[in-house]
Amino acid sequence: MNARLRQLAGALLLPFLLPVQLASMLFHFRAGRLRAARASGDRGAISIELALAVIALMVIAGGVIFAIKALATDVTSKVPKTDPVP
Q1: Of 10, 20, 39, 82, whose CA is between 20 and 30 Å from 45?
Q2: pLDDT tens sequence across 4-57
Q3: pLDDT of residue 86
Q4: Keyword set for this entry (predicted)?
Q5: What does each C-alpha distance from 54 to 25, 44, 47, 82 come to in angstroms?
């Protein structure tokens, strides 16, 4: 039963996590190019790659904030507004 629930949770969460995974891979790619530019001593490429890495990191942070906000909105809509105990 747990295996089926794990597969179901993975199938439901995958569309939400794809943008975060894409941004994470983009950040790793930019960080690798930054290391290569630093090794070759190209100052202009270092600043450009560093700026693009920061932008990719901001996209990742935005995706995480969006996911948390969506989860919080979903949970707060399920909380009853009235006291169930008289």
Answers
A1: 20
A2: 877 777 777 777 777 777 777 877 887 888 788 778 877 777 778 778 888 888
A3: 65
A4: Membrane, Transmembrane, Transmembrane helix
A5: 13, 16, 11, 45
Extract the tokens encoding 14.
């995958």
Contact 35, 51 (CB under 8 A): no
DSSP string, 19-41: HHHHHHHHHHHHHHHHHHHHHHT
Among candidates 61, 39, 36, which has minimal Cα distance to 49?
36
Q: Is the pTM of this model over 0.85?
A: no
Answer for the pair 20, 67: CB distance below 8 angstroms, yes or no.
yes
Residue with tokens 């909380």: 79
**What counts of helices (H) and strands (E) characterise the chain?**
2, 0
